[in-house]
């Protein structure tokens, strides 16, 4: 049997600073803990609704709150983390530490899937904290390019952790003893694909460029693209993005006309930025339709953005159609 490198062994050779690596290790530990509560499901009585809504007016599941608390406790216990922001918390939280890092996270992505035992995940982003002062909300509003690390855990048939720190993307698999073992040394997204992921039930609400792009895919070999496309939609961004990292594809959660004051469904700081950094580092592309997501200057904590990411040539085509 081959011996696989564990997370600590891999981090030892990663060029990022020891401090960044220490924060990544704390988040990885929290994700291993989350994997256990997710896997226990109904046994621990953790499925179902919590009976309250979050700041985005979305119904919270019990596990949204449990997983949020696991990450909060872990980060509060880390002297290198000055503040945190979560999809499930209305305002930022400071830890009392000064300097170091800020962490933003979606503690349980795809939580509408949890009660039906479909893959869910945790997404996180690590940003530099201001020096010498306790962080304020404004300090979290950094473009995605400023991230010093990003990652996600996917709780699927296997629990996996996908990371980018200073360069490249690697993936670990959680073993039965709770260790993260390096199973995917360098992840690269193929430039071309014939697989798209979008919630087709929103088709009538989309803007013209996205309608045109998807219509071209649906026409298959006889249409303008000259090839047949396959469609997948897990409705957990982590699972859809993970599939794209493993075998290519394009993921779209575009602007739609349902709620004009919401420019998209996904959140810039907890979902779009970390996933965009991972996708770009794996050789893919990411855009809001006009600009690279990583160049967006955030204006508010819970900001939403349209998201198109994945195989580079396919994302480029959507951006080109949007610019016409
Ligand atoms: P969350 O569970 O954190 O609120 O995120 C759900 C997101 C994302 O994971 C997924 O891609 C999308 O919502 C699914 O949306 P639809 O319900 O429109 O399919
Ligand atoms: Mn989410
Ligand atoms: Mn969530």
TrEMBL record:
Instruction: Report the enzyme's class at the first EC level.
Output: hydrolase
- Where is it mostly found? cytoplasm
UniProt-listed PROSITE patterns: FBPASE
| InterPro entries found in the cross-reference section | FBPase_C_dom, FBPase_class-1, FBPase_N, FBPtase, Fructose_bisphosphatase_AS
Q: Which residues cross the membrane?
A: none
User: HAMAP family given for it?
Assistant: FBPase_class1
Q: Which family does it belong to?
A: Belongs to the FBPase class 1 family.
Instruction: State what protein this is by name.
Output: Fructose-1,6-bisphosphatase class 1
The organism encoding this protein is: Caulobacter rhizosphaerae
């Amino acid at each position: 049997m081959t011996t696989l490198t564990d997370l600590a062994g891999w981090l030892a050779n990663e060029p990022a600073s020891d401090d960044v690596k220490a924060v990544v290790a704390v988040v990885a530990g929290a994700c291993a803990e989350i994997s256990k509560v997710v896997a226990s499901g109904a046994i621990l009585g953790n499925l179902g609704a919590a009976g309250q809504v979050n700041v985005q007016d979305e119904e919270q599941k019990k596990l949204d709150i449990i997983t949020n608390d696991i990450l909060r406790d872990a980060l509060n216990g880390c002297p290198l983390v000055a503040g945190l922001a979560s999809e499930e918390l209305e305002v930022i939280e400071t830890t009392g530490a000064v300097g170091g890092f800020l962490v933003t996270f979606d503690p349980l992505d795809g939580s509408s899937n949890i009660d039906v035992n479909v893959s869910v995940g945790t997404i996180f982003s690590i940003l530099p904290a201001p020096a010498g002062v306790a962080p304020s909300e404004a300090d979290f509003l950094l473009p995605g390019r400023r991230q010093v690390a990003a990652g996600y855990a996917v709780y699927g048939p296997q629990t996996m952790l996908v990371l980018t720190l200073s360069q490249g993307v690697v993936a670990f698999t959680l073993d039965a003893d709770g260790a993260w073992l390096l199973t995917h040394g360098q992840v690269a997204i193929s430039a071309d694909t014939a697989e798209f992921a979008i919630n087709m039930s929103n088709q009538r609400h989309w803007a013209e460029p996205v309608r045109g792009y998807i219509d071209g895919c649906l026409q298959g070999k006889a249409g303008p693209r000259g090839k047949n496309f396959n469609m997948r939609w897990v409705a957990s961004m982590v699972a859809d993005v993970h599939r794209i990292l493993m075998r290519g594809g394009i993921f779209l959660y575009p602007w739609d006309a349902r709620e004009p004051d919401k420019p998209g469904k996904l959140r810039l700081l907890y979902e779009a930025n970390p996933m965009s950094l991972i996708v770009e580092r794996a050789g893919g592309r990411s855009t809001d339709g006009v600009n690279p997501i990583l160049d967006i200057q955030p204006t508010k904590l819970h900001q939403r953005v349209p998201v198109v990411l994945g195989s580079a040539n396919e994302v480029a085509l959507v951006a080109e159609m949007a610019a016409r």
